[in-house]
Amino acid sequence: MKKIYLAKYAQSKFGVLGNITLEQMMLDAGRQDLDGVDRSRVDHIAVAGLLAPLLNDQSLIAGLVAMDPVYTNKSIKGVANACDSGGLAVLDCAAQVMAGLAHVGLAIGVEKMHPLEGKLDSKKVGLALGTAAHQSDLFPPFTFPHAFAVIMDRYLKTYGISEQEFAIISPIFYDNASHNPLAHMHVTKKPVTAQAVMESYRLFQDPPMPLKLFECSQISDGWARILVCDEEGLNQLGIDKSQATVLAGFAQATDSLSIDARGENLLKPVGAKKAFGAAMQMAGAKSSEISVQEVHDCFSVMAPISVETTGFAEPGQGATVLQRRPRQSRRPLPDQHLGWAHRQGASHQRHRYRHDRLDPQPARAQGAGATAGRKREARDHPQHRWPHLQHRCDRAEDPPEPAQVGSCLP
User: Fold this and answer.
1) 48 conformational bin, left if phi > 0, alpha if psi -120 to 50, beta if neither
2) What is the reported pLDDT for 329?
3) 373/367 Cα distance (integer angstroms)
């Protein structure tokens, strides 16, 4: 298989970027930190954003990318798949490169949810987000919080876990966000503790549901981008292989849309498990080799489900495993760098790519889809993250060192 490389990751700060237009965000994503490369060498661009088109009355976001004269008249494609959109942009570029249709791809993820003027219309955001749900699951304007409240309620009842026991998860998110200066919740007014989670507003009270405010991600703006190249593409850009990460395995699968259709598999996502397994198989890696894993964290319940999906915990044991935290576990557990990557660090843009985490440079980003990867040398980075993509080094004979293999799940 042709080797695919990831390079030149960049992202904006995430949060309230009300004074920055969607078009400017697109232009910044296509230019920032690329002064040292010939951008005209980009053959294909995939741009992702689920709510940005709906909330900004601009359905053709690919055309905004083409507003940059360097990219005008190039192959530019808009992609979307809910919270997997950013990861899908990376996979789309990888597919183009593997097919020989491009040597250099540019994957962009963007979300713009705050208006340029006036207050945020959270009802409008909620209704827009509801368009990604099945009609039978609509609960306007809070369709997605309600859907995950149902999932959380099912999880707690199925596995006999109390809300108090579950409240330890969100503080992990916020703690990890505190290490990322670009994260929306990098700084909080007060420390987010398990007690604070329990005392936060309960979103659904009639009938009572367990989801509380501090167990939800934020409404946020931001962008992220990464170059996807083959060896010739790196040469054209003048990027040394030592400054890139090999994308060793990837896969994508879409599960049925409605909650009812998932039936008994609601807490065991079949699509995510299938994609993760396929990505690991392509990478020639196994779960025990993973030392960096980013999991989907739109709502706190997705953290334990993701850990269980990737084989690091038995069903119902995800919260317990997360509570032990990586370095306290007998079995080496990858650094579950949760941190509200969803809206705070880029869910859709979640290029949530841990390229920077495996790179010699300081890490920044956040990630979606199923992927795996490894750098040529082990690096002891403090906090890492990313799911459905896997990058792996081109050294075939030696087993990976602890910090060499990463995995991502949306």
Assistant:
1) beta
2) 40
3) 13
Q: How confident is the model at residue 291 (pLDDT cuts 50, 70, 90)?
A: confident
Residue range 52-66: average pLDDT? Answer: 96
Q: Where are the domains of the chain?
A: 4-116+220-242
Rounded to an integer, what distance in angstroms lies between the CA atom of residue 158 and that of residue 342?
A: 26
Q: Please state whether beta strands 245-251 and 370-374 pair in parallel, antiparallel, or not at all (unpaired).
A: antiparallel
Q: Which pLDDT band holds residue 327 (cuts at 50, 70, 90)?
A: very low
pLDDT band at 95 (very low <50, low <70, confident <90, very high): very high
pLDDT classification of 289: cutoffs 50, 70, 90 = confident
Identify the CATH class of 4-116+220-242.
Answer: alpha beta
**Distance (Å, whole) CA 108 – CA 137:** 30
Taking the CA atoms of the chain, what radius of gyration do you get in angstroms? 20
Tokens of 89: 């942009």
AA letter at 55? L
CA distances from 56 to 27, 114, 303 (A): 16, 9, 30
For 258-262, which contacts have Cβ atoms below 8 Å and span 24 or more sequence positions? 258/134, 258/136, 258/137, 259/134, 259/136, 259/137, 259/147, 259/150, 259/151, 260/136, 261/134
| pLDDT (0 to 100) of residue 333 | 47
SS3 254: coil
Determine the angle formed by the axes of helices 270-283 and 302-309, rounding to 10 degrees: 50
Pick from 166, 144, 139: which is nearest to 219 by CA? 144
CA neighbor of 389 nearest in space, from 67, 86, 61: 86
Assigned token pair, 49: 């954003």
3-state helix, strand, coil in the chain (%, to 5): 35, 15, 45
Task: Please choose, from the candidates 303, 361, 364, the residue with its C-alpha nearest in 3D space to the C-alpha of residue 334.
Answer: 303
